[in-house]
Amino acid sequence: MSGRRLRTVGSVAAAVAVFVGSGVVAGAPPARAAAGCAVTYSVSSQWQTGFGASVAVTNLGDAISQWTLEWSFTAGQRVTEHWNTVITQSAAAVTARNVSYNGSLATGGRTEFGFNGSWSGSNPSPTVFRLNGTTCTGGVDPGPDPGPGPGPAPGLPNPTNVRHVGLWRRHVGVWRRRVGRVRGAGRRQQRPASPSPANTPTPEANTATWRANTAT
């Protein structure tokens, strides 16, 4: 067996051994960032055709570097001016984005912004807010279940089942024995060939040659 084949088999066996020993599960899905938020919406002042409101946003999930808060008015309110945020509105849908100095929110981080608006007839407060697409419920959403990974390598037992740990160890033992046999065969092939007895001069032949040289 060639040296390249030997190195390949050895590398695969070593990889399987490290894989089992470390307890890594093949095909494990990547971790997802946790998301969660809480929003406090307050009408700080109100007059005949207008009102002022403040919004406090608390990030309960993993740290974020920028944010977008969305909500919808239900009674035709319109935002007329704002501060500590950039607000855009399309019909009832309102989108507030961070400005340069308040985009980063660590876990538990809080920021506030405010705006003035107009109203007519009634001015109910919005009740549903979404931070970076996640509905703010006051809790943490781990995200959708990514489902099971692709599973173990073909021909090998499932490492997630404790009952299969013994089978994994047996596979590793088989690989190690195979590597030992392959390495032994490689060493035997690399040994220099012994001289053939037919080509090795005998003591009698050496003596005859010496006598012939001495006579001349």
Give the uncertain stretches in residue-range form: 15-28
| Distance between the first and last residues' Cα | 54 Å
Overall geometry comes to rod-shaped
Radius of gyration based on Cα positions: 39 Å
Tell me the structural class: alpha+beta
Provide the succession of SSEs: HEEEEEEEEEEHH
Mean pLDDT: 77
Per DSSP E runs of 2 or more residues, the count of β-strands stands at 10
Strand order of the largest sheet: 4-7-2-1-10
Counting DSSP H or I runs of 4 or more residues, the number of helices is 3
Main sheet, how many strands, which sense, barrel? Answer: 5 strands, antiparallel
Portion in beta strands: 25-35%
Query: Helix proportion of residues, in percent?
Result: 25-40%
Features of the shown structure:
five-stranded antiparallel beta sheet; 216 residues; alpha+beta
Can you put this structure into words, describing what you see?
By secondary structure, this protein is of the alpha+beta class. The protein contains three helices and ten strands. It is rod-shaped and about 140 Å long.
Write a brief structural summary.
The chain is of the alpha+beta class and 216 residues long.
